[in-house]
Amino acid sequence: MTAISMGKLLNLSRLAGPDGRFRMLAVDQRASMRATLAKRAGKAEEDVTFLEMAKVKALLTKTLAPQATAILTDPVYGLPYSALSLPSRVGLLLAIEETGYEVEQEDFQERRTVLLEDWSVEKAKRAGANAIKLLVYYRFDLSPETKAHQESIVREVGEACAAFDLPFVLEVVSYPLGEGSADSPEYARRKPELVIANAREFSRPGYRVDLLKLEFPADLKYTEEFCHKAFDGKTREPVYSLEQVREFCRELDAAAAVPWVILSAGVGIREFLLQVELACEAGASGFLCGRAIWKDALELYPDLAAMEKFLNEEGVYNFQRANAASMRAVPWFAHRRFAEGIVPAGIGPDWYRTY
Amino acid sequence: MTAISMGKLLNLSRLAGPDGRFRMLAVDQRASMRATLAKRAGKAEEDVTFLEMAKVKALLTKTLAPQATAILTDPVYGLPYSALSLPSRVGLLLAIEETGYEVEQEDFQERRTVLLEDWSVEKAKRAGANAIKLLVYYRFDLSPETKAHQESIVREVGEACAAFDLPFVLEVVSYPLGEGSADSPEYARRKPELVIANAREFSRPGYRVDLLKLEFPADLKYTEEFCHKAFDGKTREPVYSLEQVREFCRELDAAAAVPWVILSAGVGIREFLLQVELACEAGASGFLCGRAIWKDALELYPDLAAMEKFLNEEGVYNFQRANAASMRAVPWFAHRRFAEGIVPAGIGPDWYRTY
User: Considering the domain A2-354 in this protein, what is its CATH number?
Assistant: First the structure.
């Protein structure tokens, strides 16, 4: 039997549906959302007000959260303004990191994560979060200094989550470093190795991660089958076949020693639905998805009424298709980590004394 | 607008259904359950084992919790052994007091509440509770010493709940003191005044109670309409009419300055259904009920299979009738305490910094 501490056990199950599958909505985007709103409203990013951001997040929450088993938001623009729109039956994940990343110098492209100042795991727990989400950018071939920095932040958050007995959801994202742009055959070729190595690294018990939020381990737009304008009308050169991608997904699942979900990274909805299907067939426990589901609604900004109509129609439609695409997801409690069964840690007559 | 701190706001809503009404199951009974199991198994109370208690609670939870919006259990026999049977969409209340009460001397019948040793609000919060429940016995005419003791425990728990930003559910129960037995015309006559005064006392802001769990403010078995064998085949003398009882319910609602639910105190199911109906019409926000729904199942102990069958049939039937009887309950957010509307405390761009 695998022992799970009570707070992690109860709160992890609150993120999933009764079937143990995660269908989670992300609205914790900050910098990318600000940029889009500025563009659509025809103004500078710094002129996008706090309330503009908060209102868009509240609208996304109100319209889409009822479709989700849990929602990931941020404590700055998100939670306080969306609290009254949160369905009581939907789990809550709160982001712990500052938006984006820092780079040390102009010509040094390695990304370093910074935790949100004046915010903490303790505050998130107190406010009612069911889980903490941390995003780190990572690749195994970073400089030792950047690796140490990123690993140390993950360990720090992992320890705090253990102290407050809250599930730790770690999102790991790779990025091109010398392979050209993110949309290039060089980076597409490199991606499986990077994503799989990331899953392996942060599955190590020392990080105390409970659920990994992982990238799809390939770029479907560079597959033989889908490189001919399939997803965005653009032709690209093929770097692998769909069958090879299925194998990357299986390798990713083998590397992830804890339950994992797939993230959307802003791809289009049709590409995301295929990613969900392939990831779940390989062993993912669902998805944690933002922009693939709702990004088209932002194109209607600042017409909030039009956005709301779009979200209630297209957004819900997208969500329901993603929910269906994840029907073969592995329930979190059926992950091989728990093959021997699950038991609350310390169970016995003295549980309440020693907890 | 009435400001509610984030943790209380989110967790209070997690105890209720999407409609803001509480349909809550209590399985935190300890001494009364032990006595019944001992009697049914034909042994002494001290021979009822820890696991026997734990298994019965797990069975009640598994069969009935799916009908509830939240479940109240204890951290001793209940939570550790029921955690894997808790539906993820059902809120969790944890008891904080030691079972029963203490009396100072043999001939001094005033009851004093004791908190469970080696347990705390901090532990309950960490373990994933959505609320703390404290039971206190109280009447306004107790000795100053007992009143001070009981009031001080309520204040202590109220402060701890505020510190960990968890809803505080206070159950207040009166008892006969010089009026003869609990089933006597003298006590029935006294009950409205006692219950209404209790609600008024613990509505005072200093106790920091978020939800009151109250007794029905009369004994329906002593009404003109129901004193002729209606509920338990026994004839009693009438002490009031049903119309007077409705008025007691309205007075109780007027005395409760916070949302309140009705408790069952082990009455039979038909009497309880009428209590729920009358209380909800007067302003209650639902119920928190144990024995009225499941006590008949204990008569089948130690035949656990027969108990499970009974709970799945009669228990679920009872629960669904109680759910229907509470359809006119006042959603907690529609209580007059929140007549001006609700807003998360400290809302603004600095919420996450100052929380």
Answer: 3.20.20.70
